[in-house]
Amino acid sequence: MSYFINVILPIPLDKEFTYRINKTEASFIKTGMRVAVQFGKSKIYAALVTSIHQNPPLVYEAKEIEHILDEKSIVTKSQLQLWSWIASYYMCTLGEVMRAALPGAFLLESETIIQRNIDNVVDDVSLKDDEFLVYEALQHQSLLRIQEIMNIVSKKNVLPVIKRLLEKEIITVQEEIYEQYKPKVVRFVKLHPEFAIEEKLQTVLQDMKRAPKQRELLMHLFTLQAQNSKPIKVSDLLKTANSNASILKALIQKDILQEYYLQKDRIDNEGEAVENSKELNQYQLNSYHTLKEQFREKDVCLLHGVTSSGKTEVYTKFIEETLQEGKQILYLLPEIALTTQLITRLQNYFKDKLTVFHSKYSVNERVEAWYNVLNNKTKAQIIIGARSAIFLPFSNLGLIIVDEEHENTFKQYDPAPRYHARDTAIVLAKMFEAKVLLGSATPSLETYYNVKQKKYGFAELTRRFGGVLMPEINLVDIKTKYRKKEMTGHFSDTLLLQMQNTLKEGEQIILFQNRRGYSPVVECNTCGHSPQCPNCDVSLTFHHYKNQLRCHYCGYHIAMMQKCMACGSVDLNTKGFGTEQIEKELQELFPDHTIGRMDQDTTRGKHGYEKLINRFEEGEIDIMVGTQMLSKGLDFRNVSLVGVLNADNLLNFPDFRAHERSFHLMQQVAGRAGRTNKRGKVLIQTYNPFHQILQQVSVNDYLGMYKDQIEERHQYKYPPFYKIIKITGKHKDYNRVNEATNWFAKSLRNVFHDHVLGPEFPLISRIRNQYHKNIIVKIPRGQSLHKTKEAIRRIHTTFSTIKEFSGVRIIINVDPF
Ligand code: ADP
Ligand code: ZN
Ligand code: ZN
């Protein structure tokens, strides 16, 4: 009797491959284990077993496997099922899904590069001979390819050695060195130990007669200490004592008080009671009960709650219940890095039951999280993660929460699999009969449409928590303001006045500008030339601070020119504006206030983003100007004014979603204003104050926006009424892309007739020296999705055989939005 296995290889080939195993191996191997196999002439891969059977392949002689790499399955049956769904729905290969799904350390292949783990002190006596050879080689060479290791240990079959070295944490797989997640530190204060003696303390208090404020603060510290024995946070002390930082500083300088820092998570682990989740108010309770009721019939529900209505607390109740049932919870967020505040909150509630899964964590951390979920460990009961967390090996999933479900970061654009994590989560949940709770202040049209169709359940929160009013939103017509000369730089007098008032009250301001850099375009006033990126069809953006011109698509940059490159004129003009220019104007307008800037350029460094947020939270920054990073779920208590500098460049984006997105974005940005008792103010500057979307934003009219937009989607045949598949051809030669996509579109038209649009060059048709041209296939309801994809695949296969088009990459994107 012969035995065979089918495996997935982490390469973009459309098939599983069959290998031969012997009887002993057959009794040991299970699906979801990795085996080392040879593929091609000399390449070795860690492949994943999908089935064990007795049918030899028909067209080739099955090779034997090299080695079994795992003792237990590392991938579950449900995962394999989900992978097939993704591959088939999003039209990619299982190998591509496998690459996206498994942590890098599981994906060994002969091209892999390893390096020594310098954090680990190795006792080399404990190493086996072959392990030692590799270890020693790494003393002389910082990096080794697996190919090279084959020579070092003089055998082909090296993956088992590598695997052992990885497990002993002697080596790591090379990857970009990501920053590791570091919990934030908190500042504490205590009495200097010297004054623990009663008499000494009395003397000090006597001496402080002339510094009543310091004395008061000190007395307050004693009161707090008497209340409970917890360490005292500086922020708590100052707040409850109604004191300020300079008084505290004086006490610290006199060595009466001592400051010290603790890591947030260490504080939590001190064994003090975990913070309890909050008691829901009447509106939250209503929503909660409605959702519970709806979940009896529906698998998916939407919680539509305005910003700051307390959605998170409602999710928390569902999380607690699911925990009680002993089931796992997946909490999906658009971005981990931008939601530290929320994560801290959930960590306080759930502490040791919660794992944050971050694709940017180190290899070891990701592998550890993987095993914790696989083994259903306590600390992996709740997983918080961005889109890639849907790939974890859940065994007992009970609930998936998709927070901010409208965010487009849930969609992966590149590389394949081009999946949407919200939609995939719904499929994943179904496999476990788990429930899905979607939440947003501005639901996507698709989701809201599904609610209207009664496919999804629904509950609403229309009030902010604690009776806080929704911000008052006003539009400022800057066309008129420019004409009447009531603008200073990019600021209308209305906005400036409001800013002055806000600062006078000691409150903070957020300003939103959707472009980074100083100004997008530099233009010569003499000949009209503006410098372009040599690799992409875009103008270079001027960055004042570095005095550079940069391309935001490929990173190309040159020093800012002194004179026009075309005609030599020195009369250069800058058009448009970005965050950097706003920051500069602010520094001149408000010289006595601290200005912060939050965009990709300022948050790149080590913890750049967290530091900025902390500084803003602590009140060190008065005005924060930033890009859409500012719109994501941040909760700053003291912000009472939000300004949008120019709404028009959002609205004018050529995309069928531009209006919906503008609405979401402006509502979300506005939602940062006035989260405490005072009603917040929002000012939106625009050239088109009568634009329908802006009108709807200004009165918070989600339903109005929904009705208009869904009507347009219907009329112009867009989702949710039609499905869309986008097919892109890419090549460095303009003509070849043209001809190839023409051929492709024509073949599609033979089948789908006028449901094919294009080919058309996108707005930016060349990026990194590659031309792009797009074809859109629209699929009406009732047309089989499966058959449509089959037809596209057939055309693609024929396409690949045509010589003239060789080298043209075809990218297929299902639901490309
Ligand atoms: P959303 O997620 O809808 O924007 P949050 O859940 O962040 O709203 O709630 C907004 C604020 O109100 C938070 O600071 C939160 O702590 C507070 N909050 C919400 N619900 C309650 C509650 N039931 N009791 C006390 N505070 C609450
Ligand atoms: Zn010129
Ligand atoms: Zn470029």
Automatic annotation (TrEMBL):
Reactions it catalyzes: ATP + H2O = ADP + phosphate + H(+); Couples ATP hydrolysis with the unwinding of duplex DNA by translocating in the 3'-5' direction
Residue span, Helicase C-terminal domain: 559-714
The keyword Lipid biosynthesis is annotated on this UniProt entry: no
Pfam family name, one: PriA_3primeBD
SUPFAM superfamilies (alphabetical): P-loop containing nucleoside triphosphate hydrolases
Documented EC number(s): 5.6.2.4
Binding-site residues for Zn(2+) 2, renumbered to this chain: 533, 536, 551, 554
Positions annotated to bind Zn(2+) 1: 524, 527, 564, 567
Keyword flag Aminoacyl-tRNA synthetase: no
A GO cellular component entry from the record: primosome complex
UniProt name for this protein: Replication restart protein PriA
